[in-house]
Specification:
The structure is a single chain. The mean pLDDT is 90. The N and C termini lie far apart (38 Å). The chain is of the alpha/beta class. It contains eight helices and nine strands. Helices cover 47% and strands 19% of the residues. It has a domain at 2-29 and 89-201: P-loop containing nucleotide triphosphate hydrolases (Rossmann fold), CATH 3.40.50. The strands form two sheets. A five-stranded parallel sheet has the order 2-7-1-8-9.
Length: 202
């Protein structure tokens, strides 16, 4: 399980989208949320849009791996969908914040790889948020304040990438994922392979 976290506007969603498009071994975790869909967003593809009552029921029934409240809306990860993807041999990518990452790490420990994406500067971050054209000025300023809070948790992550160039950042993310996949403890069947090899050499 791989987490990409960043303040809004730092580029994690763009990186995640490109990574999913070029790496057949990884699948995106789709979050459940109580916020309203933005223009162009599709229910079940971008997010699972639910009411607060439905979200609270999912919490009560222990159906979420993690959840958090951000800007008055709730976001969470449905447990069953993630478990199904892992069973088929897929890696799962999470686009979640530090609160969700902490909860996931408490539950799965070493099975989680945490990447934090930083913007190249404060000015670039603010410009990206304004360029979206989806939020009013007071929302942009609220997101800038929240960004400072998000960034303060950077040291809790295994890797940190400064997103100056999208293609270069994407390559760095892919290199990290490839290296993590090659770790001895994640190589399924490696012990049997080596045992068979050494037996034949005796």
């Amino acid at each position: 399980m791989y987490v990409l976290s960043s303040p809004s506007g730092a580029g994690k969603t763009s990186i995640a989208t490109k990574l999913i498009g070029q790496d057949p071994l990884i699948s995106m975790s789709i979050s459940m949320t109580t916020r309203k869909p933005r223009p162009g967003e599709v229910d079940g593809k971008d997010y699972i849009f639910v009411s607060k009552e439905e979200f609270n029921k999912a919490i009560e029934n222990n159906e979420l791996l993690e959840w958090a409240e951000v800007f008055g809306n709730y976001y969470g990860t449905p447990k069953e969908a993630v478990e199904q993807k892992l069973k088929t041999g897929k890696d799962v990518l999470f686009d979640i914040d530090w609160q969700g990452t902490q909860q996931l790490h408490e539950k799965v420990g070493k099975d989680l790889v945490r990447l934090f994406i930083l913007p190249p500067s404060v000015n670039v971050l603010e410009e990206r948020l304004k360029r979206r054209g989806q939020d009013e000025d007071h929302i942009v300023q609220a997101r800038m304040k929240e960004a400072a809070n998000q960034i303060s948790h950077w040291a809790e992550y295994d890797y940190v990438i400064i997103n100056e160039n999208l293609d270069e950042s994407l390559l760095e993310v892919q290199n990290i994922l490839n290296a993590e996949r090659l770790k001895r403890e994640r190589r399924v069947g490696l012990s049997a392979f080596v045992r068979n090899m050494t037996t034949r050499m005796e």
